[in-house]
Structure formats: C-alpha cells, structure tokens
Amino acid sequence: WKKLIMVHHWPPTVCKEAENDCSNPPDYWTIHGLWADKAEDCNRSWHFNLEEIKDLLPEMKMYWPDVIHRSPNCSHFWKHEWEKHGTCVAQLATLSSEKKYFSKILDLYKQLDLNSVLQKLGIKPSLNYYQIADIKDALASIYGVMPKVQCLPPEKNEDVQTIGQIELCFTKDLVLENCTHPGFPASLKQKARWADEADSAGLEVCADGPAFYPPPPRETR
User: Fold this and answer.
1) Nearest to residue 139, comparing CAs of 162, 161, 164, 114?
2) DSSP state, residue 209
3) Left if phi > 0, otherwise alpha if psi is -120 to 50, otherwise beta: which for 196?
4) What is a biological process (GO) this protein takes part in (predicted)?
5) C-beta separation of 15 from 47 below 8 A
6) For 4-212, which CATH superfamily applies?
7) Cβ of 158: how many Cβ atoms within 10 Å?
8) Catalytic residue positions?
C-alpha cells in the first residue's frame, strides 16, 4: 500500500444508508477510520484490546462513535477498524500499536478540524443542494490537496445524491497529499461500506453535479 486515507463520515447519512433511525445522531462529522489504500485484515491474530485505549475513551466516544449501533462503549466498531485496517498500517512506527493507532487518528481528526473548516467555508447542512466540484475546490483551497467526497446514490423517489463521507489522504510520513489522481485504486475509488453492513448498497464517489448535505433530524421531545 502507498497512502493513508483519513475517513470522516456524516452521521445523518450513515443512518440513512444503514436504514437505521439512529436516535439523535451527532450533528458533526465523526471518524470512520484511517485506512491503507490497498490492504485490509493484515494480521488476524492481533486482536483488539479495549484496555489499551482506556484513557482515550472520552475522546473516542465523542469523535469516533458507533453511529449505527450506539453501544455503550462502541467497542464493536473500534474492534472492526483495528482488525481490518489498524493491523495493516501498524508497520509504520507512528502507528505501530493499537494505542498509537487510535491516538494518532484522534490527533489527525483535531488537526484537520473538518467541522470548523466546512463552517468557515459556508458549507453547512441545508435543504438546498451543493455542487460537488464547489465542495472539493473549497476544501482544496484550505488543505492544499484534493479530497475525495463520497455520496449515497439517489433512491427511486429521490433526484439527487446525498453526501456521506469525506476522505483526506496522507503519505506514509503523514503529509497530506491528493486523494484523487490517476492510479487511485478502483476498489476504494468506487465503493465504501459502513463497517459490518455487508448488505448495504454502499457509498460511491460523488458524481459531478448537485448533492444533498442533509441537516440532522430534529430531536423529538
């Protein structure tokens, strides 16, 4: 593998994609994971141990929740991400243990500060549509690299795709680089699925054109 992909997802779209009502999902972008571009399930014998990240749990629950299942400690989701992706990138010194992996991802999340960046750019959840090219260009103007934006394709009764995921890519030295350029692996370029939702339709790279950035559902009282 050649690069790392820092994946953020938008909770209201996660819920829609999983066909799950997800009571009161977060109204901010949360972490999906940090992935190598061409590797998964690298070391099946290296099992997840919640005790190793015990001191990270307050931040993990805030920034890396299991949006779909909302289990008390989200450990099922984190276990999936570690065993599928963490054990692959652990060959890098900066990510060479479970503790380092999760700590570094939290650091990257705060460093990228995607939520604040989108707010400053005036890109907010709205009933009006955004042009995908405008979002990519706006993010590139801040980060200096081209991100990848993934959408849920429109369903039969819809006329527009729904923004679900934003990815920013890094070199193995954790320097930002373009996500989209010739040679990007087709498997990740075309599809991405939420963890353990094998029967889902999945996300696709957003098509050029309009997209819906859905506001969070109003909390029912």
Assistant:
1) 114
2) S
3) left
4) RNA catabolic process
5) no
6) Ribonuclease T2-like (3.90.730.10)
7) 11
8) 32, 81, 85
Number of alpha carbons in the 13 Å side-chain half-sphere of residue 87: 17
- The two three-digit tokens of residue 106, written as one number: 């939290």
Longest dimension (CA), the chain: 50
Spans of all domains in the chain: 4-212
Residue 212 token pair: 């819906």
Residue with tokens 């979002």: 135
Q: Write down the residue that tokens 């994971």 correspond to.
A: 33
161-170 and 210-212 as β-strands: parallel, antiparallel, unpaired? parallel
Question: Looking at the chain, how many residues does it have?
Answer: 221
Which segments of the chain does DSSP mark as H helices, in order?
Answer: 11-17, 57-63, 75-81, 87-89, 98-112, 114-120, 132-143, 186-190
Which residues partner with 129 through β-bridges? 212
Q: Is this model's pTM higher than 0.85 or not? A: yes
Question: Phi and psi at residue 131, in whole multiples of 5°?
Answer: -90, 130
Exposed/middle/buried for residue 220 (C-beta within 10 Å: 0-12, 13-18, 19+): exposed
- Asked whether residue 190 carries a pLDDT value surpassing 70, the answer given is no
* pLDDT, tens only, 81-90: 999 999 999 9
Gap between the Cα atoms of 154 and 129, Å rounded = 13
